[in-house]
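Researcher: Structure for this, please.
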Amino acid sequence: MNRLRRWGPAFLMVLPSIILIGVFVYGLIYWNVRTSLQQQPMPRGPSGTTNYSKLWAERRWVRDLKNLGVFTVVFIVGSLVMGAVMALLLDKGVKGEGFFRSIYLFPMAVSFIAAGIVWRWLLNPSSGLNLIFDKLGLDSLKSQWWQSKSPWGMAAMAMPAMWQMSGYIMALYLAGFRGVPEELREAARMDGAKERQVYRHVVFPELRPVTLSALVILGHISIKVFDLVLAVSGKQGKTETPAVYMWDLIFQASNRPKGATVATLLLVGVAVLVIPYLIYTVRSERKS
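Model: Predicted structure, token format:
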């Protein structure tokens, strides 16, 4: 009875949130998985895992996964490197740090759609960056960008995403840099370590949790990428991702079971990234 009086009011306060999450998150996940197990047209009844086996046999699905793989690698590596470099420059104590922090973080305030429209012009072979390179006499840097049929086309598609997310990664790394005790750096310097060695052997090893968090965040963003692709290139096979394919199946081909199959696989991909990270975070908190 005492426990009920103690926890009852708090439980009633969060009960509406629990109901809403249960219905609109887990309820819709259940509905999506159930739909993916139906036949097309849907009144024909359940088909089990037939939709999944057929999907993996499609060349289009395999191509979209390859596109996503190239995009993910370039996006994650580029964002981590750019974010770490910007954080390192700010950590060294440049003048006007607040101004540069705002400049680096500004792209995050822009939606993928708005950024994609701008980058669509920048990555146009007849204008944008190619025009700038032409004026500067740097013809060797000119490219077909996303219109290229090689993997470089999908790598170029990651450039707008890198531009948008590198500032956020910078903020994560900068907070990590500032969280490393100055005593550790001073001890390394007293032992004869140069500044480069201090960062390599003392500072960066302390940033492993930050890097892990950044990998999870960037990874799940890349898996779900949709609006950026449509804004830059439109629905093009050479730049299509699984999320674009899902949208095409549901809203263009009116094939809800197959679209739900793609959505379920995307959810599994996100869960593979997020769930181990959550387990690791909980265990780390318990140890500390």
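Researcher: Any notable elements?
Model: The radius of gyration is 24 Å. The mean pLDDT is 87.
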